[in-house]
Specification:
The protein is an alpha+beta fold and 121 residues long. It is built from 3 helices and 4 strands. 44% of the residues lie in helices and 13% in strands. It has a two-stranded antiparallel sheet with strand order 1-2. The chain has a two-stranded antiparallel sheet with strand order 3-4.
């Protein structure tokens, strides 16, 4: 072979192969790239696994506690009766809905709940 042929063959070989002593000789560039990519993926997976383990080692956050509502004030029966009288309730049950929310409406009674009257207009 001529020297020119050997040089062109060597140039072509350099485009596709590299001497990699750590891998044991001549290795194709595609193999080197694939190996580098795989090494990067393994390092990334290791870092993610370490982050997950670190996160799992942290104590779980306590759930946010909502304040309990204050209990409703206890109103005795006498006070409830006085409040109803102040609102104008007569203590008569409505003939339509049965609620004790009848209020004076002129000479008749009108229900605050359903709006019916005792016959007057």
């Amino acid at each position: 072979m001529s020297e020119e042929t050997l040089l062109s063959a060597a140039r072509r070989m350099v485009r596709f192969f590299r001497i990699d002593e750590s891998k044991g000789g001549i290795t194709s560039i595609d193999t080197i790239r694939a190996s580098e990519t795989l090494d990067k993926m393994v390092k990334r997976a290791d870092a993610e696994e370490k982050a997950r383990q670190a996160q799992a080692a942290l104590p779980a956050p306590e759930p946010e506690r909502k304040p309990e509502p204050a209990p409703a004030p206890v109103v005795d029966l006498t006070t409830q009766r006085q409040i109803a009288q102040m609102k104008g309730y007569e203590g008569v049950a409505c003939t339509m809905c049965g609620n004790f929310t009848m209020v004076r409406n002129g000479t008749c009674l009108k229900c605050d709940t359903c709006g019916s009257t005792t016959g007057c207009s």
